[in-house]
Design a protein that fits this description.
The protein is an alpha/beta fold. It folds into two domains: 134 residues, Response regulator (Rossmann fold), CATH 3.40.50; 69 residues, Arc Repressor Mutant, subunit A (Orthogonal Bundle). Helices cover 56% and strands 12% of the residues. It has eleven helices and five strands; from the N terminus they run βαβαβαβαβααααααα. A five-stranded parallel β-sheet has the order 2-1-3-4-5, sandwiched between helices. Helix 1 links the parallel strand 1 and strand 2. Helix 9 crosses helix 10. The chain is elongated, with a radius of gyration of 19 Å. The termini are far apart.
Length: 220
């Protein structure tokens, strides 16, 4: 029997171990690695070349969205299924735009999880009906500039920092909200400044606000 090799990326050990135990009971699924962050997941994919990655979103070092993009860029045949507690629009769009083949909420049953994994292995795309409705609504309302500028210039994690910069939050507040160290936040902000070509926080905020505004034609 052909088995489906899987990498699990989940920063909570109890959840990670539970997923590994559930999937390890299946005759046709093999957990080849269980990782605590997105960077570890990427390295596990590079080493084991799994068929599927179960990817959490909020993780230290490298979040799941950035890891998904990196995995799909370098190993496009790897299937990434986002598995998370978050159902916010931006996470749905970010995950799917960066190559995820499904978006699963953690309240699904073990039997459903196994079923979705098998369907994904056969090329099926899975998004719960509630998530699909949110996605459709978001895409209808997104402006060209919202889709284009920030997403082209910045990573999903950088955009999370940018959103809080625009709200005039301090590095400490950003770190607390994103479960990062202040040093990591400073590194993200330095990269953002470099991309903007400025070291001035107020000027950076002004530039970032302008990038979020819909592009409208001038009035005559």
């Amino acid at each position: 029997m052909r088995t489906i090799p899987i990498v699990i990326a989940e920063d909570q050990a109890i959840v990670r171990d539970g997923l590994a135990a559930i999937l390890g009971m299946q005759d046709d699924i093999e957990v080849v690695a269980a990782c605590g962050n997105g960077l570890e997941a990427y390295e596990a994919v590079r080493q084991h070349r799994p068929r599927i990655v179960l990817m959490d979103i909020q993780m230290p070092v490298m979040d799941g969205i950035a890891a998904t993009k990196r995995i799909k860029d370098d190993f496009p045949d790897t299937i990434v299924l986002i598995l998370t507690t978050f159902s916010e629009d931006r996470y749905i769009v970010d995950g799917l735009m960066n190559g995820a083949s499904g978006y699963l909420l953690k309240d699904l049953s073990a039997a459903k999880l196994v079923s979705v994994i098998r369907e994904a292995d056969n090329g099926e795309f899975y998004v719960p009906s509630m998530i699909a409705a949110q996605l459709a609504g978001r895409l209808r309302n997104m402006s060209d500039s919202e889709i284009g500028q920030l997403e082209k210039e910045f990573t999903p994690r950088e955009i999370e920092v940018i959103e809080r910069l625009i709200e005039r939050k301090s590095n400490k507040e950003i770190a607390e909200e994103l479960f990062l160290t202040e040093g990591t936040v400073k590194n993200y902000i330095s990269v953002i400044y470099e991309k903007l070509g400025t070291n001035d926080r107020l000027k950076a905020i002004s530039l970032l606000k302008s990038m979020r505004k819909p592009q409208t034609g001038s009035k005559s």
